[in-house]
Amino acid sequence: MNGALQPWLAMGKEWLRVAVHPATFVFVALLAAFYARQVALERRLFFVRLRSVWRETLHSVLMGAGGGLAASALLVGLGVVVHPHTLAVLWGVALVLAIARFRYLCLAYAGGIVGTAASLAQLAPSAFAIPPLAPLGRFLLQVDVPSLAALVAILHLVESVLVFLHGGNRATPLFLRSPRGKLVGGYALQRLWLLPLIVVVPAAGGGGGGPEWWPVFGSGATSWTVAGLPALIGYSDVALTRTAQEKARHAAGWLLAYSLILLALAGWARVWLPAALLASTFAAVGHEALIRFGRWQERGRPALFQHDAEGLCVLAVLPGSPAEAMGIVPGDRLRRVNGVEVRTRLDLHAALSRNRAHCRLEVLDQNGEVRLVQRTVYATDHHQLGIVLAPDEDAPYYVEVEDTGLFGLRGRTGMQASRRSPVGSRAEVADGAREPSETASS
Predict the structure, then answer these.
(1) pLDDT at 379 over 60
(2) In a domain, 394, yes or no
(3) Any idea of the CA torsion for 68, 74, 75, 79, to the nearest 10 degrees?
(4) Residues 103 and 44 in one domain
């Protein structure tokens, strides 16, 4: 059999094994619980359900299957050979890091730490030859740093595509407190995808050898095999100064640049050992820089979803509602309703009550253009046409982002809302929802 075809045939067999892997069913349950938590928060904040738990779960599984196929093709095609022991240590380091900050449950940080330690051991093996460090040194000398960096880069590359295609869709609208203390609207962009992942691992014997050019990345082993494992990758961000779609596209662009640079550094490390240290450092530091840059950008721009002199700001539109049929989108501003100028929620309710059978809206979009829309209103329609307004100071709930550790979640996942007291109350976003990150796999 042609050695060039053998990896792809083995991949098909491993994909079938991944489909029935016990961890796959566990991860599907985690996906359902994750989205159920988001739907529960939406009900508590807005008294309506904006999404379906099972539809979101199915969509994440299907999108993840496509992402897993793409990632697996790149990993096997480039011959990214990763020893199972390295993968086990990688996930262990990621879990330890998550104790400090849940967002550190990401291969960029764990891969950066493991890769940096392995690079130092391979550049100065004598430093790890002393008895207390000898077992660690033996492990680090076996780590293929270029393949490790390539693994992190490829997962981020696939994540950037998924974020671009789906990261801004069905984002959860939130009421948040701005740095200046004012309640504003925003979106939590939180998505998880289940990837059936195929990786190349060294084989003790009986494996394939591949074509002459293969592997581009690899440990130099003369025989190999492929192994399948289910993996979760996720994206988490908060959009305050842009729409959810704009924020996701912006984040996807930076993630793409990060992954391509890291992949290039991994390739360089194949021919020049010191570049392995540079690639490992960039994996962690570059990822953290992306997060801090995104936060800095959010602080430097005015919040988008807040009421102003131009009218009432639309934060979200319920699916299938009259507002959606009229073409109302998040970021629009309601100036007049049934001929009445509106500046508060009470103004809107009073204006809608003027004519309960028909509604005529004057809307200002984000481009500064005014349009008139109208529609017949039925008794079964949402009392506010399906429009979710940005918050005012009388909003009963708001969400506060917290960058907490794994134990700080206290059994919670996602977000939890609580009623405001006279001095204000908050909902918590566990892990701080401000960064793209990979989460654990099995």
Answers:
(1) yes
(2) no
(3) 160
(4) yes
Helix axes 84-100, 107-123, angle to 10 degrees: 120
Q: Determine contact, residues 322/386, Cβ cutoff 8 Å.
A: yes
Give the domain extent around 222: 6-302+436-441
Three-class SS state of 92: helix
User: Which tokens hold the place of 316?
Assistant: 């979200």
Asked whether residue 421 is assigned to any structural domain, the reply reads no
CA distance 97 to 103: 9
pTM: 0.84
pLDDT, position 210: 55
- In terms of Cα–Cα distance, which of 222, 216, 218 is closest to 204? 222
Q: How many domains does the chain have?
A: 2
How many angstroms separate the CA atoms of 390 and 159, rounded? Answer: 30
Mean pLDDT of 200-212: 63
Report how far residue 15's alpha carbon sits from residue 48's, in angstroms, rounded to the nearest whole number.
39
Residue 251, C-beta contacts closer than 8 angstroms, at least 6 positions apart:
163, 167, 189, 235, 237, 294, 436
58 and 176 housed in the same domain: yes
Q: Where are the beta strands (DSSP E) in 279-418?
A: 312-317, 333-337, 340-341, 358-364, 370-376, 387-389, 399-401, 415-416
Q: Is residue 65 domain-shared with residue 174, that is, in the same domain?
A: yes
* 324/257 same-domain check: no
Return the closest-CA partner of residue 265 out of 249, 285, 281: 281
Residues 178 and 242 in one domain: yes
> What percentage of the chain has pLDDT greater than the value 70?
83
Residue 337's CB is within 10 A of a number of other CB atoms, namely 24
Does the residue 190 lie in any domain?
yes
pLDDT at 417: 46
Residues 296, 361, single domain; the answer is: no
Tell whether 253 is covered by a domain.
Answer: yes
User: Which amino acid, 303?
Assistant: A
Indicate if 364 and 290 belong to the same structural domain.
no
Cα–Cα dist 357/375, whole Å: 9
Q: What is the pLDDT of residue 209?
A: 53
168 and 244 inside one domain? yes
